[in-house]
Every structure is written in structure tokens, then in C-alpha cells.
Specification:
There is one protein chain. The chain is an all-alpha fold and 478 residues long. 71% of the residues lie in helices and 0% in strands. The protein has 18 helices and no strands. The two termini are 42 Å apart.
Length: 478
């Protein structure tokens, strides 16, 4: 009883802390002067750092542990939403880049107004999280031998399903990755973004099960762990060769969370290795970004890669990576300024489309009008024809305008519920591997909503979380 009261009190204190942060944002909006873009970016960058510290502290203090995927989500939310402004503090932003606030496509007022909205959006997302999250007492242990034996049996069954899905999906996955590699090297990265047709369309549907199998095996496979690591590393290499980074980012983050919280296999020495590998990974992903759009223009691939490496090293690849993360600020600003003046509100329609997307393409015209933030708004950014991506904030505003604040609170509440369930699994209170897999898959999808949208969540959840879940249940009955 006392523990419950303590948790409730801690949550209220964190919520009050976040409300004070919102008040500070309001005061900032009153006293900040509208000036040139460079000065506005510096002011926003300073405010972003302060808000990031406040938001992360408010979430951290609930259980005093950094092993929390929502903490990572909030960190990413600030870096992706304000990366360029944060770098502007030290004069390190890339002013000549295509996706750069400094180019002048947006006015300083548009940038400031959007930033204030995003600050509030992230803060109320954290408030929603604090309203619902609760942590299992760290002293909880399940000592029932019968329950443990049942858990081991179910774990064996989910590993079996994981390997079956891996075998089924690995050929389609490799085919698509090889196709992307050939397309990028021949026509450039943008050509690889074109929707696949024919047999590749079927391969694309099946290949989604590959990630599901990896999540199952990484979480529960013990006997052939080295093989699982080998498959993941090979998958990462092929993804980078094909110019893609999203899947690498999401899968790497969720594997880190699984290892640190659920499997509890990370010690201080391993964390040092992870930090080193993380730096190498950031460099590699930045390298992919540098060469993927120009690889088809050069006959000497080796020289192109050499120049890209030299450029990254001389210009600080970490700065380049954070600046590129900050590209999300452009899509947020674009949606905020063009909606509803040029693009009308969706009034929740994109979330209905998320459910509609569950219907397979071959059953009628399931995807008629099935477009999201990226496809709708990217053409309005006339600096380039490249896609700009999306974010859960831009998607929320496109649907509900300022009323999206209520949506962000609900979004945070859902995050809190997911984290609570995963924490129960980590503490041994939740012992159903199939349910744990579903929770892990949802976290895998949600952690990158700082740079994407929920439009495809319905289809992904049903096809790649619910179907594997049912397969485990069928396999269990046998």
C-alpha cells in the first residue's frame, strides 16, 4: 500500500515538473524577439536543450533508471525535432544542405511558432506517460517451479516459431535487399523508394515476418545465439549497402533494450563496447547518407567512398548525424505552416486509414487514398523532390490541429502502459512469451515515430505481431 502511494506521489511530482516546463515555454514565447533565422535557431536550440533535460529528468525520476525505452524515445524526439537548432548554438549547422532551416524556405516566425508547438507536444506526451506508467516493485520474484517450467515450455515453442518464420522470410528479404543494392548503385537512392510490383510485392509482404522472427530469436534463443547475431549483422550490412538506415536504427535500439532490461546481460564492460560500436555505427550510417545519392554518378565506387569518409572525418560525423536527425524539424514546420491553409485537417482520417490498411492489396482497392504526411506534404517543399518523412507530432497536428495536444496525452498514456507491461515482464511478473513478443514488437514500431507516422501500424501489427502470436498459440496447442 505504501509502495503504491509512493509511486503515485512520484508521478504527480513529475507531472507538476512538466507543467512548470510548459509554463517556462510560455514565458519563452513572450520574451523571445522575432529576429533573423540564425538568431532564432540559436534561441530555439538553447530552449531545446533545457526542455530536453527537464523532460528526461521528469521521466527518469519515476524509477531512477536509465534503462527505459521511453527515455530513449524522448531523447530522440528532441534530437530529431531540434538537431539543427542545437548544432546552431556552436555554429555547427549545415547551412548549404538541401534540408536546412538556414536556406530561408521558412520565415523565422514560422520556425519559432512551430518550435513552441513541438516543445509543448513533447512535454504533454511525457505528462501522458506519467499519468499511466507504474513500476513493479524491484523485489518481486516469481519462485513457483510450476510457472517457471510452463514458461520454459512456451519459450521453446516461440523459438521454434521464430526459426520457422526466419526460414520462410529470409529468401524474400534477401531478394528485396539485393534488388535495392542494384537499384541504388545503378539509378540512385530515390529510385529504390518506388513501390515494388509483381513477385517483389509478395516478397515485400512476406519479408516483414523476418524482423518478427529476429525479435523472437534475439529475445528467447539460447542454444544458437551466435547464429542469431550473425544473421542480424548480415542483415545490417545488406541494409546499409542498399542505402537504408531506418530498420537498422529501430532494430538496434530494441535489441539494446532487450539485452539491457529483459535479458539483463549488459555489464559495464559490455556498455563500453556498445558505446564504441555505437560511434562506429553513427559513422557508418552517416557514410551511407553521404554516398547513397551519388553512387550511381561515379564509376569509381572506391574513390567515392574514400572521399565520403574523408569529408565526414573532417567535418565531424557526429555533428553531421545530429544535423541530419534535425531534418524532422522541416516536416514539422511544413505541416504546421501549410495546414489548414493549403492542406485541410484530416480530423482523424489518417488513423482510420491505419485500420483500412490491414486489408490486403489484392482485395479490391484497399489503398485508395492511403497517403500520409510524407506523400502529402513533401511536394510543398519545393527545394527538392526528395521525401521529407514524418513524425508523430506532424501527424497529430495534421489530424487535429491544436486539439492534437489531447492526442499527444493519449499517445503518452499508451507509451506508459506499454512500458509498464514490459517492466512487468522484466521483473518476472509477466511470463507469457507470446504476449511479451507483442509488447516488444509494438515498442520496436513506436520508438521511431519521432521520424515516421502510425499510418502503417495497423497492417504491421496484424501481419507481423498478431499472426506470429497466433502461430505460437496454434503451435502450443499441438
Amino acid at each position: 500500500m505504501n509502495s503504491s502511494l509512493k509511486i503515485k506521489r512520484e508521478n504527480i511530482i513529475s507531472i507538476l515538473f512538466l507543467l512548470c516546463e510548459c509554463l517556462g515555454i510560455g514565458i519563452f514565447s513572450i520574451f523571445i524577439k522575432n529576429s533573423n533565422i540564425q538568431k532564432i535557431m540559436i534561441s530555439i536550440g538553447i530552449m531545446a536543450l533545457l526542455c530536453m533535460i527537464c523532460s528526461i529528468y521528469a521521466v527518469y525520476r519515476l524509477n531512477r533508471k536509465i534503462e527505459n525505452i521511453f527515455l530513449l524515445f524522448i531523447l530522440f524526439a528532441y534530437l530529431f525535432s531540434f538537431g539543427q537548432c542545437i548544432m546552431a548554438i556552436g555554429g555547427l549547422e549545415l547551412q548549404n544542405a538541401v534540408f536546412s532551416l538556414s536556406r530561408g524556405f521558412f520565415t523565422s516566425k514560422e520556425i519559432l511558432d512551430t518550435s513552441l508547438f513541438v516543445f509543448i507536444s513533447i512535454a504533454v506526451t511525457c505528462i501522458g506517460y506519467c499519468l499511466s506508467v507504474d513500476f513493479v516493485n524491484s523485489s518481486f520474484h516469481n519462485d513457483s517451479n510450476m510457472i517457471k517450467n510452463c514458461y520454459k515450455s512456451k519459450k521453446h515453442k516461440i523459438v521454434k516459431v521464430g526459426w520457422i518464420l526466419c526460414v520462410i522470410s529470409i529468401i524474400p528479404t534477401l531478394s528485396l535487399l539485393c534488388s535495392d543494392i542494384i537499384t541504388v548503385s545503378t539509378f540512385g537512392y530515390e529510385a529504390s523508394l518506388v513501390k515494388v510490383t509483381g513477385i517483389l510485392k509478395i516478397f515485400s509482404l512476406i519479408s516483414g515476418l523476418f524482423v518478427s522472427s529476429i525479435l523472437m530469436l534475439y529475445t528467447y534463443e539460447e542454444r544458437h545465439r551466435t547464429l542469431v547475431y550473425t544473421i542480424i549483422i548480415g542483415y545490417f550490412i545488406l541494409q546499409m549497402a542498399g542505402g537504408s538506415r531506418i530498420e537498422i536504427f529501430r532494430l538496434a535500439v530494441i535489441c539494446l533494450v532487450i539485452s539491457g532490461m529483459y535479458r539483463k546481460e549488459l555489464n559495464r564492460r559490455k556498455w563500453i563496447y556498445i558505446i564504441v560500436l555505437g560511434m562506429v555505427g553513427i559513422f557508418a550510417l552517416s557514410l551511407v547518407s553521404n554516398i547513397r545519392n551519388y553512387i550511381y554518378l561515379s564509376d569509381d565506387i572506391g574513390e567515392l567512398i574514400k572521399k565520403a569518409i574523408q569529408n565526414l572525418w573532417e567535418n565531424n560525423f557526429i555533428v553531421a548525424a545530429i544535423n541530419e536527425m534535425g531534418n524532422t524539424q522541416l516536416i514539422n514546420t511544413l505541416v504546421y505552416t501549410k495546414c489548414p491553409s493549403e492542406v485541410p485537417y484530416q480530423y482523424g482520417l489518417s488513423f482510420l486509414k491505419m485500420i483500412w490498411g490491414i486489408i490486403p492489396n489484392f482485395i479490391g482497392s484497399a489503398y485508395t487514398g492511403y497517403i500520409g504526411v510524407d506523400i502529402t506534404f513533401s511536394p510543398l517543399y519545393t527545394v527538392t523532390s526528395a521525401g521529407m518523412g514524418a513524425s508523430y507530432i506532424s501527424e497529430g497536428y495534421w489530424n487535429f490541429g491544436y486539439f492534437s495536444i489531447a492526442y499527444f496525452i493519449l499517445f503518452g498514456i499508451f507509451w506508459g502502459w506499454i512500458v509498464k507491461k514490459f517492466n512487468e515482464a522484466c521483473k518476472g511478473k509477466l511470463l507469457n512469451p507470446e504476449n511479451i513478443f507483442v509488447i516488444i514488437y509494438v515498442m520496436y514500431y513506436m520508438v521511431f515515430l519521432v521520424r515516421s507516422e502510425s499510418l502503417g501500424f495497423g497492417r504491421s501489427f496484424v501481419y507481423y505481431a498478431l499472426i506470429p502470436y497466433l502461430l505460437c498459440k496454434i503451435n502450443g496447442k499441438r
